[in-house]
Amino acid sequence: MYTIITENDESAWADETGVLYHFPKRYLKYLEPGANVIYYKGSLKNKSFLKNRLSDAPHYFAIAKIGKTYPDKESSKNDFFATITDFIPFKEAVLAKDDSKYLETIPDTRKSNYWRDGVRAIDEDTYHLITSKVSPNKVSEQRTAYISDETTENYQDSLESFSEGKKSKRYVTTYERNPKYRKQAIAIHGNSCAACGFNFGKFYGEYAEGFIHVHHIVPVSELETPKEIDPETDLIPLCANCHSVVHRKKDKTLSILEIRKLIANNSKQKI
Questions:
Q1: Which of 9, 184, 209, 263 would bridge 49 by S-S if both were Cys, CB 3.0 to 4.6 A apart?
Q2: How far apart are CA 202 and CA 186, in angstroms?
Q3: What are phi and psi of 113, to 5 degrees?
Q4: Is residue 120 within 8 Å of residue 103, measured between CB atoms?
Q5: Is 0.85 surpassed by the pTM of this model?
Q6: Residues of the chain with CATH 3.10.590.10
Q7: Is 149 exposed, middle or buried (0-12, 13-18, 19+ CB in 10 A)?
Q8: Per-residue pLDDT tens for 79-117?
Q9: For residue 39, what are the CA distances in angstroms to 36, 59, 79?
Q10: How far is 49 from 56, CA to CA, in rounded Å?
Q11: Can you tell me the distance from the alpha carbon of 15 to that of 103, in angstroms, rounded to the nearest whole number?
Q12: Within the chain, what is the greatest distance between any pair of CA atoms?
């Protein structure tokens, strides 16, 4: 499956390039897991966004794949979102028009409204036509943005989280951590603690909205080899207190079921 996905400079969607993509339900059939997608931007409308674009003209700027799709719990319109994998940005724009001819094939019945669709199915030939315009020196080398130790100390929301397990030697053994999985996990599971239900935003207000720790269900230090993380099954949101208790003992990491039992048993004793 091959699909064009549009990213607008200004949008009401809570998208993040290469991480999450939100869309109306009508596009679900075009964004099945594993679908090959090409990112597209339309004409520049606000010059303040020019520095964030490869061109002011309509263009394609990256390729990726759809990871999984989920109902958007924050939407009242039955919308969905997809996790993005294998994101590779271009160093230079591939213009939507080549020698006054569009790279996408526009049906005669859609000439007046084709570009209104933010998600557009294309065939394999069109996909390869667009990507053929990207020479090797115009494709950015794919690099994962890892959280540094300093960043980790500042956020303290990943006691054992986000790493694919690749060891790096410093004064002690540390593990590289990929921040995109945190964002995907929160989008999937929400930002309330999976153990006690605590929600920082509801308790502290707007200032703390969206804050939550993300726990790696299988401790990264126990991984023998690098592992591709599934944010749906490998990560879970926990409040700071529950996350600390889960990792209280160095030789044991509590499961979510175990900490829920601790909370339930202690609550019964107080009654």
A1: 9
A2: 16
A3: -135, 15
A4: no
A5: no
A6: 2-138
A7: exposed
A8: 999 999 999 999 999 999 988 899 999 988 888 889 989
A9: 10, 9, 20
A10: 9
A11: 25
A12: 76
